[in-house]
Amino acid sequence: MSAVEYRAILKYRLMIPLFPADDPSPVCRKCCLNSFGEHAVHCKELPGFKYRHDLVRDVLYDVLKRAGISAKKEAPVNFLTDPLEGRSTLRPADILVFGWEGGKHACVDLTGVSPLVGLRDHGFVAGQAITKAEAGKVAKHEKACIENQHVFVPFAFDTFGALAPDAVRFLKRV
Question: In sequence order, what are the residues at sequence separation of 6 or more whose Cβ sits closer than 8 angstroms to the Cβ of residue 29?
Fold first, then answer.
């Protein structure tokens, strides 16, 4: 552990603010930092965030293939959109599993979160971050999948290795 990491962790544990409240993130410039730096742990613009997501996606895809389940990574589907865009945008499913349920294909959407999200505001509750992330994915994409004769499977995980309930059910079935 470097001296910088050690100081940051020590300040966090002692509840010494790391940043001025409401300063914009120097990385993404979109979100405001909170004074204890939880945003820095889970900012989507940090290089490690996308790498971790892609690593889990690649391992999950390999597990599906080894189990003899037909699937495709980054499969283009025309109905997954980003509501923030305000228009239809082509977003691939992280993994499209063919004939998953009742002959319908499943759009598996992975999301990784830090279990420390909101820690100072609400206290630590095991599984709180992944449960919230899973619910957010369902609210964002499930209706579009159902309307297009697909099944939606959110696959939420946290950086400590915990899995959301739908991810656990998915893996048990595999």
Answer: none
